[in-house]
Every structure is written in C-alpha cells, then in structure tokens.
Design a protein that fits this description.
Distance between the termini: 13 Å
Number of strands: 5
Radius of gyration: 12 Å
Oligomer: single chain
Order of helices and strands: EHEHEHEHE
Largest sheet: 5 strands, parallel
Number of helices: 4
Strand content: 15-25%
Length: 97
C-alpha cells in the first residue's frame, strides 16, 4: 500500500491495518513537519519518506513504477491529487482519494 500525504487519522490507521495483514506500507509527504510527526511509525514494514515534490522527485518516480494493491491519495496541495491519480491509476488495484 502507498499513501500520498500523511494525516493524523489515515497514517496510524493504515499502519495498523497493514501491520495486522502483514503488508508493506509506504507513506510520503512533501511537508517535512508532517513527516516528522509520523516518523515514529517507521519500521521494516512501513517506510516514512519525505519527498521534495510529487513529480520529478527520483524516489517518487521509482515508486510510481511499482505495482500497488492500494493507493491512498490525500496530499496537499489538493491540485497534486489529480496528477498523482493519473500516474498511479495504471499500477494500482484500488485507488482511494
């Protein structure tokens, strides 16, 4: 599962769901203060990543190329959601935004 944009509700909930199911979770955000709020959830099965941009960032581009069961798209700015959904819709089984 991949999460674009971290939040007080979504990130801990997705963390718990993925841990219970034995699934990997990758959470991304462009706001370093948000990344720092959830860094404590990071583990071998949950990567917490600060990215500079939703497009053009090498790490984001590499993640776009992977196949995902679920993508949760809820980042800021809201206008970035359209771009991310357009890219990940071809490599994800379930898209939620």
């Amino acid at each position: 599962m991949i999460e674009f944009g971290m939040g007080h509700y979504s990130t801990p909930m997705l963390h718990d769901l993925c841990a219970a199911a034995g699934r990997q979770l990758v959470s991304l955000d462009t706001d370093e203060s948000w990344v720092d709020r959830f860094r404590w959830l990071g583990s071998a099965s949950h990567r917490i990543i600060h990215v500079e941009s939703w497009e053009g960032d090498a790490e984001v581009e590499a993640l776009y190329a992977r196949s995902w069961a679920v993508a949760f798209v809820d980042q800021h700015p809201e206008s970035a959601r359209v771009q991310v959904c357009t890219v990940v819709c071809v490599c994800v089984s379930l898209l939620s935004f």
